[in-house]
Specification:
- The protein has helices spanning 13-24, 28-35, 39-49, 68-72, 88-100, 139-149, 169-189, 194-204, 209-217, and strands spanning 58-62, 80-85, 107-111, 124-130, 150-161, 221-228, 233-239.
- The chain starts with 12 loop residues before the first helix and ends with a strand.
- The protein is α/β, with parallel strands linked by helices.
- Helices cover 42% and strands 21% of the residues.
- β1 (58-62), α4 and β2 (80-85) form a beta-alpha-beta unit.
- α7 packs antiparallel against α8.
- It is built from nine helices and seven strands, in the order αααβαβαββαβαααββ.
- The protein has one domain: Rossmann fold (3-Layer(aba) Sandwich), CATH 3.40.50.150.
- Strands 3-2-1-4-5-7-6 form a seven-stranded mixed beta sheet, sandwiched between helices.
- The relative contact order is 0.16.
- GO terms for molecular function: demethylmenaquinone methyltransferase activity.
- Methyltransferase required for the conversion of demethylmenaquinol (DMKH2) to menaquinol (MKH2).
- Pathway: Quinol/quinone metabolism; menaquinone biosynthesis; menaquinol from 1,4-dihydroxy-2-naphthoate: step 2/2.
- S-adenosyl-L-methionine binds at residues 66, 85, 113-114, 130.
């Protein structure tokens, strides 16, 4: 049974995730930075640096949300970044952001399903995702589609929450994510379910070596896992 945001609803996970992000989209950026104490910005920079040597020219940012990871990827000097997301609310916030920063000519925000991408095979030099893969309804299917649209020799870089293993960070993180985080999220976003779903989805996610195994299963090679900040999140890299 997969973890879903709204346990009283019968809708599939994909529909519930879209609804949740539509609900919290106006406050999403603020909440992200507050709840991670701003560390998420540093994590994104580190993840993008994993592509520095490759200098990809066409990048796909999956589960782009409001486009923060896409903006970070501009450091690679690409010709074009396409961001896709299933939440129109998040995309709308992202489009406003791109227009305000005069980035809408290089970052294109599109409605799209990560598990059924509307792009031809072997199109992108790099496929990136930040804090999105644990929201996939079918993880293997989503990763396989990312592999399909990636050019041979291209890389995927995935930033995702993971579970700290060592004392005392394991206990401190558990207390923060299960007690403090949902309370702040509820007050700011007015969506009671969104920030109880977050720690539950992290708990259910196959992180570390388990995630690398799924990447390898769908075809990626030269896979790497780089834990960040005592294992609160991790960067995963795979090549096609």
């Amino acid at each position: 049974m997969s973890v879903v945001p709204y346990k009283d609803k019968e809708d599939p996970k994909k529909a519930q995730v879209a609804e949740m992000f539509n609900n919290i989209s106006p406050k999403y950026d603020l909440l992200n930075h507050v709840l991670s104490l701003g560390i998420d910005i540093i994590w994104r920079k580190k993840a993008i640096k994993m592509l520095q040597k490759d200098q990809p020219k066409l990048i796909l940012d999956i589960a782009t949300g409001t486009g923060d990871f896409a903006i970070e990827a501009l450091a690679l000097n690409p010709d074009k970044i396409i961001g896709v997301d299933i939440s129109e609310g998040m995309l709308e916030e992202g489009r406003k952001k791109m227009k305000k920063r005069k980035l809408d000519h290089i970052i294109d925000m599109q409605m799209g399903d990560s598990e059924g991408l509307l792009f031809e095979d072997n199109k992108f030099d790099a496929v990136i995702v930040s804090f999105g893969v644990r929201n996939f309804e079918n993880l293997e299917k989503g990763l396989a589609d990312m592999y399909r649209v990636l050019k041979p020799g291209g890389k995927t870089v995935i930033l995702e929450f993971s579970k700290p293993k060592a004392f005392p960070m394991k206990q401190a993180y558990s207390f923060y994510s299960n007690t403090i985080l949902p309370q702040i999220g509820k007050i700011v976003s007015k969506d009671n379910s969104a920030y109880t779903y977050l720690p539950e989805s992290v708990q259910a996610f196959p992180d570390g070596e388990d995630f690398l195994a799924v990447l390898k299963k769908v075809g990626f090679h030269s896979t790497v896992c780089k834990p960040l900040t005592f294992g609160i999140s991790s960067i995963y890299v795979g090549e096609k």
